């Protein structure tokens, strides 16, 4: 959409595809990278992107989708932060014969015809990967392992899933004990603040599991402030693998990071093209994500883009 | 004594007065139309009537919440709990319907009653213990949101047939449609206008906002009225929550985050004084439309990054407010 | 109330009150409370004056974000991030911008005459966008020890942020109570029209209030970003305005304007921070955190309310006996 | 001395006590009220009159004592309950809602309804009828706040008498009314009394009390001095009962020799207004005030006296004419400009335009002086205490505690605080708009004497009062206003009498030619809400 809104409406006449993308907001660096990836790859793929930011509000996202329907875009894509509550508007999209692609997270509607496909990470799996590393790390040891957990924003999907995935894996072994678990709201400042309190309330902390890098980075400062060595005195596992996190990992301050890639733009654009062309697409596309330990981080760091 | 004052007053009566009373409303309306026209000129497809109707469809719940908020603000109070009560309502409805399998005919009145009850409780504390509404309703906000989380931290989809049928109910006319929620919201607005303009409760609301001490000395039922407005606001929030659950067909603790600010902004943009005693519900409706229209314009623009979205919202709000202020001031 | 909260901590964590010196710094939960409370104290101090004039400032959270972002951006662009001059310039620039933003609010409220809540809502929304624009939506990480000092450093074993908060508190106290500013603010907040007719520059006073609030928010923003050595335009200072207003109100200042108490505000901010720290320390699960907060806020306010005390404890405050002095002078002295 | 009731008292209060922190406002007070009488409650400022009324109607809790209404013991929890039990009250300050219309203020709580819906037409019709009965012709749909204080007071009275009650309580209803309105009010009161209503009346105007009341109860320092039949008690005895000692200040003042106007006019004028006016407020007028001169403004309610004062002070901005202070043209931009030129303005509306209720007596008194000095030069505390102490004594402000909150003072004492605020600024022109409103006889005499002394010392004074006698007694020169236009200006010599001024007001043409043609400044253009 240019300045004058030219190009809105159906792009079919001139052959370019119009994609309406309803982003949740810009609550974190991760999300911003996600947005940027979508925008950049749309430009690269020659797709006309209509972008809207819902500022963390599901209502706004629904409004945006509805506007895309009135504007008759070719494809609608959006990142539902909340898994429920989309049926009505998606039915409207379906009635208007506009295909929908979910990014980042699935919705829990029984009607699977409401969307074409879903591309994104599996937060539960991420939690599991974190837990598995921990299990291997402490294999063979018997003394109890005291874990503190920095959760994401209360009620948010990544927080819920990363918590439960992690818990599922470690519950098999009674030596793992989560001694404190509190929300750090995905931010560094809160991460630091909560960790300071943890350090005072619990004498013996062995492991910190933070639901994202930022909280982990905040916690590192708290740990250093208490005169301990992060990564050594307290082992740290985080999720995301943003640049700062990778740096800390490479520096030995973090022990393990589970990647959660925001860069699903290129994959999304491929899907969009396929959907418009009428090709069949898989029901679920999981983004390519790995995990990093300290050595891998050193290797990967130089070409980390975000 | 000579009847001199009489002659003085004759003739000078009601100069400018009726217009002046409604001037902010007219100014707001005119600016709203201006904004809409700008949108029509700038974006294709904006002139589609459905765009305007969608503003109603998308903001029906906000409208209902704002009606309750108008009552509270007219008394000079404030209700910060509305957003959380909305969330609590969606959450409670969803959990009762889906997880407990209760009948919707039981759930609906129950959640409405609960909202009203919460408002009632806050009103009582505000009035009898003379604590500032800001704090009491802030505590109410924490309470309601906290209750949401204790019900569940994840969201619950509503698949109840009654709920879904209302949610998908469309009133169509000539290719356009509005949802059932819009009808409910408009009815609430109409009732609100009637109550404020034509009942003692409504007039007492204005009186308390004008001067609570005087209202008391004039022998008005201050306690009853003040508690009533918070009850009304609680009820409206619950109803707004029900409408939101129609709109989303889900219950979620995160719903309605920051909604209280939107509602307050709508009321104040509509010309109601935050200090109480002056303002109209029609203004509130306009205020909601202004916010909705700004959102629509942003969406139509379609190429704003997240931060430019916020900045543009701020700028549009600023332009609107300043113009509104300029118009009403010059006319005085 | 603060005492009760602190005491409850003692039960859960016996060495809550332990303050020792580690690595040459004061260390302990109490120190943490004040240290993390410092930004809130600052923002609340500014908010107090704005509320005293009968206004409200919703934009402080955004100003916090903007200032942190700008300072970090400038520092990250420095060749040598540890250069004191460079950091000072960045800090100065950020605070200058804060003053400007405050002036903007003040202008809208005092000059244009827009209702404060809406006037500052504009900056609250747009300012958050501005902060994100500055950081490009990312988190700017800096590595500068002089900058680190502001929020995370120590000076003579005392956390520097506490000193800054104390300094601003002292300054505000001095300005309002040693000059006539406090009286004029209370007068404007109490009755604006009467104040105007008494010759008070009501507009100028209101304007100053917003500038001061933004300045405090700016300092708080530097503190928050310095504490974690990074600027988060998205989340820094999010919802801090609510906490600040709460602190002001708990501190005994009425939202209707007029009488204010800076000391009360500091106490209010400390109560809020203690509450937060308590929640972390005694391990209340995040799902019930809000319920706990609601409970504490309600109890604090009920206990503060004279009406509640009178009604519930039935304890009427017995007024002291009237002075026996019933004599009145008969002669009117006419001052020359 | 006490007259025993022939009929059964409708209201008896026995042993009433009420304490406020630091003050015993009422102490063992007994009070009786009979049907068909007008009973005056008398006492100095702060004697406890208003408190007694508030205790009776449940605004304050009773600490001790019993109240019996119509044979049954009562203890009201608030005005609502009192009203329902047949006690209708006009409290001392105008207690109405400025944001509502006149009609609503009269009827709110008792609106005519059909099927629950308020009938606005009927409401307005009734209000108009009621106000007509009081001789007041105002637009009943105008917001009350746009009307002058006197009109507001009339509306409050209208509201009270419309409630068909057994007991009507009027706490200083006449404080800002002029003779005409008072006459109307008394007519209505007599009529109600004839219908058997019991009326409690408070006023500091002794003439009014003697004209209307049948009996009176005198309070002093929160205690009852006695109950008297009005015709058995001379004014002098009443005054000494009230203040507890003899007072002859009133008489003293009459004997003050008036300085001749001619002598004064030789001095240079402090303020010269030439064609000063404001659209919708007051037509262009010219007025000169010299050093040491007291200029009185005479006129009826709403004639524009307050507007003249506000223009001279810059409280409103003039849109026509010029103003000179000390011979130099001044662009009067606001109160600060005026204050910089030593002009002070004591507003008639002490509650909304004067005092800051939540500040202390001391703070209120020094407010203007402090504002003039600027925020950076606070008045040293010692000097504050000194000044405040002096005026608390001089004006006999009760309680004599400078740290008491002004909002908790009795009405008359609040007025004194406001007056003190402007006196300590030692202005050269002092504008007094109804300075003696609600002030007791003793203090009123003091204030009048003060005005004389100050003007002798060279201060120029613009004096506005609803009481024409007072204006005549004090002024060297009197300007007469009518319909928001200055119609005449006369030197106050022996030929000037109240009758003559009333005649000028009534006929509308004085000896001086009108200042300007009606034009756009005609009285029929009213722009409301000019205050931003
Ligand atoms: N709310 C209050 N709090 C504290 N003291 C009060 C309060 N109300 C009245 N008082 C005190 O009670 C005393 C009696 O006041 P009251 O208003 O009854 O006097 P009054 O006789 O009506 O005087 P006036 O003629 O000036 O109206 C005064 O000393 C006053 O300061
Ligand atoms: N008799 C009346 N009829 C209608 N309006 C009136 C009347 N008297 C006063 N007003 C209103 O009161 C307002 C203020 O009048 P103003 O203050 O100039 O009068 P004033 O001469 O000072 O009389 P007052 O004795 O009431 O103070 C005017 O705007 C006018 O609308
Ligand atoms: Mg009184
Ligand atoms: Mg007047």
TrEMBL record, chain B:
Predominant place of localization? membrane
Report membrane topology.
Answer: Multi-pass membrane protein
Enumerate the CDD domains for this protein: TM_PBP1_transp_AraH_like (cd06579)
The protein's organism comes out as: Plantactinospora endophytica
Q: Which UniProt keywords apply?
A: Cell membrane, Membrane, Transmembrane, Transmembrane helix
Protein name, UniProt field: Sugar ABC transporter permease
Membrane-spanning ranges: 22-41, 61-94, 106-128, 134-152, 173-196, 227-249, 261-294, 306-323
Give the domain of life. Answer: Bacteria
Q: What is the lineage of its organism?
A: Bacteria, Bacillati, Actinomycetota, Actinomycetes, Micromonosporales
UniProtKB/TrEMBL annotation, chain C:
Please give the residue ranges the record annotates as the region Disordered: 316-336
Q: Which residues cross the membrane?
A: 58-76, 82-104, 154-175, 205-224, 236-255, 262-284, 290-308
Report the CDD domains cross-referenced here. TM_PBP1_transp_AraH_like
- One short Pfam name that applies is BPD_transp_2
Swiss-Prot/TrEMBL keywords: Cell membrane, Membrane, Transmembrane, Transmembrane helix
Membrane topology (UniProt): Multi-pass membrane protein
Q: Where in the cell is it found?
A: Cell membrane
Top-level taxon of the source organism: Bacteria
What PANTHER family does this protein map onto? Answer: ABC TRANSPORTER PERMEASE PROTEIN YPHD-RELATED-RELATED, GALACTOFURANOSE TRANSPORTER PERMEASE PROTEIN YTFT
Q: What is this protein called?
A: Sugar ABC transporter permease
- Species of the source: Plantactinospora endophytica
From TrEMBL, chain D:
The protein's GO terms of the molecular function aspect are: ATP binding
Q: Which UniProt keywords apply?
A: ATP-binding, Nucleotide-binding, Repeat, Transport
Keyword ATP-binding included in the entry's annotation: yes
Q: Extract the InterPro entries matched here.
A: AAA+_ATPase, ABC_carbohydrate_import_ATPase, ABC_transporter-like_ATP-bd, ABC_transporter-like_CS, P-loop_NTPase
Instruction: Give residue ranges for domain ABC transporter.
Output: 11-246, 265-508
Q: Where is this region: Disordered?
A: 509-532
UniProt keyword annotation of Transport present: yes
Q: Which domain of life is it from?
A: Bacteria
PROSITE patterns in UniProt: ABC_TRANSPORTER_1, ABC_TRANSPORTER_2
Name of protein:
Sugar ABC transporter ATP-binding protein
């Amino acid at each position: 959409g240019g300045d004058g809104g030219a190009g809105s409406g159906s792009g079919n006449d001139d052959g370019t595809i119009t994609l309406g993308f309803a982003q949740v907001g810009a609550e974190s660096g991760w999300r911003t990278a996600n947005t940027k990836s979508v925008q950049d790859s749309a430009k690269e793929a020659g797709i006309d992107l209509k972008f809207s930011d819902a500022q963390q509000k599901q209502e706004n996202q629904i409004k945006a989708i509805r506007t895309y329907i009135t504007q008759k875009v070719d494809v609608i894509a959006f990142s539902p932060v909340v898994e429920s509550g989309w049926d009505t508007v998606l039915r409207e999209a379906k009635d208007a014969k506009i295909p929908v692609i979910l990014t980042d997270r699935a919705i829990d509607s029984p009607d699977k015809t409401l969307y074409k496909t879903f591309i994104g990470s599996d937060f539960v799996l991420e939690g599991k990967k974190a837990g598995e590393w921990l299990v291997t790390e402490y294999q063979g040891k018997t003394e109890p392992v005291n874990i503190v957990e920095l959760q994401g924003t209360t009620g948010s999907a990544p927080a819920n899933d990363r918590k439960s995935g992690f818990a599922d894996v470690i519950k098999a072994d009674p030596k793992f004990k989560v001694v404190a678990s509190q929300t750090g709201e995905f931010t560094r400042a809160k991460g630091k603040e909560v960790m300071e309190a943890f350090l005072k309330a619990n004498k013996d902390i062995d492991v910190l599991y933070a639901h994202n890098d930022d909280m982990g980075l905040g916690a590192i400062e708290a740990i250093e402030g208490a005169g301990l060595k992060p990564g050594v005195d307290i082992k740290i596992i985080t999720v995301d693998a943003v640049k700062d996190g990778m740096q800390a990992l490479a520096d030995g301050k973090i022990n393990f990071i589970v990647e959660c890639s925001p860069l699903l733009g290129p994959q999304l654009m491929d899907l969009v093209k396929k959907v418009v062309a009428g090709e069949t697409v898989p029901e679920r596309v999981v983004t390519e994500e790995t995990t990093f330990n300290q050595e891998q981080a050193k290797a990967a760091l130089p070409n980390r883009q975000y | 004594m000579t009847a001199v004052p009489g002659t003085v007053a004759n003739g000078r009566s009601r100069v400018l007065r009726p217009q002046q009373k409604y001037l902010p409303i007219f100014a707001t309306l005119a600016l709203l139309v201006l904004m809409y026209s700008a949108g029509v000129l700038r974006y294709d497809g904006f002139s589609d009537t459905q765009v305007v109707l969608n503003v109603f469809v998308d903001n029906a719940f906000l409208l209902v919440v704002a009606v309750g908020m108008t009552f509270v603000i007219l008394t000079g109070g404030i209700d910060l709990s509305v957003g959380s009560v909305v969330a609590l309502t969606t959450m409670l409805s969803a959990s009762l319907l889906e997880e407990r399998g209760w009948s919707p005919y039981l759930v609906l009145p129950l959640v409405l009653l609960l909202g009203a009850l919460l408002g009632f409780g806050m009103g009582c504390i505000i009035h009898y213990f003379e604590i500032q509404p800001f704090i009491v309703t802030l505590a109410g906000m924490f309470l309601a949101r906290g209750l949401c989380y204790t019900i569940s931290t994840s969201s619950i989809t509503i698949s109840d047939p009654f709920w879904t049928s209302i949610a998908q109910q469309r009133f169509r006319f000539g290719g356009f449609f509005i949802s059932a929620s819009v009808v409910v919201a408009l009815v609430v607005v109409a009732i609100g206008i009637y109550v404020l303009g034509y009942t003692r409760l409504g007039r007492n609301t204005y009186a308390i906002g004008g001067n609570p001490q005087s209202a008391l000395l004039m022998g008005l039922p201050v306690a009853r009225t003040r508690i009533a407005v918070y009850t009304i606001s609680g009820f409206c929030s619950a109803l707004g929550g029900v409408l939101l659950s129609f709109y989303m067909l889900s219950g979620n603790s995160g719903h309605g985050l920051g909604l209280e600010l939107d509602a307050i902004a709508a009321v104040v943009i509509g010309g109601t004084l935050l200090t109480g005693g002056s303002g109209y519900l029609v203004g509130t409706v306009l205020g909601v439309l202004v916010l909705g229209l700004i959102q629509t314009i942003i969406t139509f623009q379609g190429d704003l990054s997240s931060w430019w979205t916020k900045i543009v919202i701020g700028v549009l709000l600023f332009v609107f407010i300043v113009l509104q202020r300029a118009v009403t001031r010059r006319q005085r | 109330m603060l005492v009760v909260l602190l005491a409850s901590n003692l039960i859960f964590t016996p060495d809550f009150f332990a303050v020792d010196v580690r690595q040459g710094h004061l260390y302990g939960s109490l120190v943490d409370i004040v240290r993390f409370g410092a930004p809130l104290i600052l923002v609340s101090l500014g908010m107090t004056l704005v509320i005293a004039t009968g206004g409200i400032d919703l934009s402080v959270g955004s100003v916090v974000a903007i200032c942190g972002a700008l300072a970090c951006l400038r520092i990250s662009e420095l060749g040598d991030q540890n250069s004191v001059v460079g950091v000072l310039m960045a800090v100065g620039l950020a605070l200058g911008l804060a003053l400007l933003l405050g002036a903007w609010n003040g202008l809208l409220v005092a000059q244009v005459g827009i209702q404060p809540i809406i006037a500052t809502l504009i900056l609250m929304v747009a300012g958050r966008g501005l902060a994100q624009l500055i950081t490009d939506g990312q988190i700017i990480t800096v590595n500068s020890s002089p900058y680190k000092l502001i929020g995370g450093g120590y000076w003579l074993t005392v956390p520097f942020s506490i000193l800054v908060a104390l300094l601003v508190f002292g300054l505000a106290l001095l300005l309002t109570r040693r000059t006539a500013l406090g009286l004029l603010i209370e007068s404007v907040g109490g009755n604006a029209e009467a104040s105007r007719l008494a010759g008070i520059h009501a507009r100028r006073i209101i304007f100053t209030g917003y500038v001061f609030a933004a300045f405090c928010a700016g300092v708080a923003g530097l503190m928050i970003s310095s504490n974690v050595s990074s600027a988060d335009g998205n989340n820094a200072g999010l919802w801090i305005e609510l906490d600040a207003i709460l602190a002001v109100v708990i501190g005994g200042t009425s939202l209707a304007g007029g009488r204010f108490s800076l000391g009360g505000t500091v106490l209010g901010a400390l109560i809020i921070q203690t509450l937060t720290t308590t929640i972390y320390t005694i391990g209340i699960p995040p799902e019930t955190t809000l319920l706990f907060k609601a409970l504490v806020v309600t109890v604090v306010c009920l206990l503060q309310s004279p009406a509640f005390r009178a009604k519930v404890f039935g304890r009427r405050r017995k007024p002291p006996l009237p002075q026996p002095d019933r004599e009145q002078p008969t002669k009117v002295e006419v001052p020359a | 001395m006490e007259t025993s009731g022939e009929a059964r008292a409708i209201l008896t209060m026995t042993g009433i006590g009420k304490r406020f922190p630091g003050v015993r406002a009422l102490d063992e007070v007994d009070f009786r009220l009979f049907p068909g009488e007008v009973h005056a409650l008398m006492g100095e400022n702060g004697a406890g009159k208003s408190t007694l009324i508030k205790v009776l109607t449940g605004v304050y809790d009773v600490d001790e004592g019993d109240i019996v209404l119509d044979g049954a013991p009562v203890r009201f929890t608030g005005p609502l309950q009192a009203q329902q039990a047949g006690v209708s009250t006009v409290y001392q300050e105008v207690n109405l809602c400025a944001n509502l219309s006149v009609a609503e203020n009269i009827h709110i709580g008792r609106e005519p309804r059909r099927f629950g819906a308020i009938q606005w037409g009927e409401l307005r019709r009734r209000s108009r009828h009621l106000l007509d009965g009081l001789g007041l012709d105002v637009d009943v749909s105008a917001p009350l706040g746009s009307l002058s204080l006197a009109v507001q007071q009339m509306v409050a009275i209208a509201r009270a008498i419309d409630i068909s009650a057994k007991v009507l309580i009027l706490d200083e209803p006449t404080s800002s009314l002029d003779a005409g309105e008072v006459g109307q009010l008394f007519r209505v009161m007599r009529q109600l009394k004839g219908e058997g209503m019991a009326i409690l009346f408070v006023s500091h105007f002794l003439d009014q009390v003697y004209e209307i009341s049948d009996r009176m109860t005198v309070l002093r320092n929160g205690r009852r001095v006695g109950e008297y039949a009005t015709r058995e008690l001379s004014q002098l005895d009443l005054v000494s009962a009230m203040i507890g000692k003899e007072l002859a200040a009133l008489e003293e003042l009459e004997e003050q020799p008036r300085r001749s106007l001619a002598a004064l006019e030789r001095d240079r004028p402090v303020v010269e207004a030439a064609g000063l006016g404001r659209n919708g407020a007051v037509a262009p007028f010219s007025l000169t005030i010299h050093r040491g001169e007291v200029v009185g403004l005479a006129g009826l309610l709403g004639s524009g006296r307050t507007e003249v004062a506000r223009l001279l002070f810059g409280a409103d901005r003039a849109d026509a004419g010029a103003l000179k202070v000390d011979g130099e043209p001044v662009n009067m931009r606001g109160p600060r400009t005026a204050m910089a030129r030593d002009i002070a303005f004591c507003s008639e509306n002490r509650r909304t335009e004067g005092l800051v209720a939540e500040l202390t007596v001391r703070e209120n008194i020094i407010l203007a002086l402090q504002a003039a000095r600027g925020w950076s030069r606070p008045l040293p505390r010692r000097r504050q205490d000194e000044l405040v102490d002096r005026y608390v004594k001089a004006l006999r402000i009760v309680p004599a505690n400078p740290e008491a909150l002004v909002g908790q003072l009795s009405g008359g004492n609040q007025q004194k605080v406001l007056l003190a605020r402007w006196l300590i600024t030692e202005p050269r022109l002092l504008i007094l708009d109804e300075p003696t409103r609600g002030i007791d006889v003793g203090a009123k005499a003091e204030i009048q004497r003060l005005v004389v002394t100050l003007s002798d010392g060279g201060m120029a004074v613009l004096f506005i009062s609803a009481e024409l006698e007072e204006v005549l007694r004090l002024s060297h020169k009197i300007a007469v206003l009518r319909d928001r236009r200055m119609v005449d200006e006369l030197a106050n010599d022996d030929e000037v009498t109240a009758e003559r001024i009333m005649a000028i007001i009534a006929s509308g043409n004085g000896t001086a030619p009108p200042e300007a043609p009606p034009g756009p400044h005609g009285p029929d253009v009213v722009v409301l809400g000019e205050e931003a």
